[in-house]
Design brief:
2 helices; 128 residues; mainly alpha
Length: 128
C-alpha cells in the first residue's frame, strides 16, 4: 500500500513537473511571438515615419523654391503725369518734377551732384 501511494505521489509530481515545463514552453512561445510582432510594428512605424519625413522635406523644399521664384518687386514710375484737363504748362511740370527730385534726394541722403574732379593720389611727395 505504501508502494502504491508512493507510486501515485511520484506520478502526480511527474505530471506536475511536465505541466510546469509545458507551461514554460507555452509562455516562451507567446513571448517570442509578442516580441516578433512588436519588432515588425516598430519596423513599420519607422519606415512610415521615414517616408512621411521625406515627403515633408520634399514639400518644404518645393514651397521654398516657389517662395524664391514668387518674390518679385513691382515698381511703377511716373515719368510725366497725364492730366485729363491741361491746367499746367510744360514749365510748371518741369518745376514740379525738379521739386520731387529734390525731395527724393533729401529724403534718401544722396548728394545733389557727384564730387567733381579726381581724388588725390596717395603716397605723393607734395607734403611740406
Amino acid at each position: 500500500m505504501w508502494r502504491d501511494m508512493l507510486f501515485y505521489l511520484y506520478l502526480m509530481l511527474g505530471g506536475a513537473f511536465c505541466g510546469w515545463i509545458a507551461h514554460g514552453w507555452h509562455d516562451a512561445k507567446n513571448e517570442l511571438a509578442a516580441n516578433q510582432s512588436a519588432e515588425k510594428t516598430r519596423l513599420i512605424v519607422t519606415e512610415t515615419t521615414r517616408q512621411s519625413g521625406q515627403a515633408l522635406e520634399n514639400k518644404l523644399s518645393e514651397l521654398k523654391a516657389n517662395e524664391i521664384h514668387t518674390e518679385r518687386e513691382i515698381r511703377t514710375e511716373i515719368i510725366k503725369p497725364v492730366f485729363s484737363n491741361v491746367c499746367a504748362t510744360d514749365e510748371s511740370v518741369r518745376v514740379f518734377n525738379q521739386g520731387v527730385e529734390r525731395a527724393e534726394r533729401t529724403l534718401s541722403g544722396k548728394p545733389a551732384d557727384p564730387v567733381p574732379g579726381q581724388p588725390a593720389s596717395t603716397g605723393g611727395q607734395n607734403r611740406h
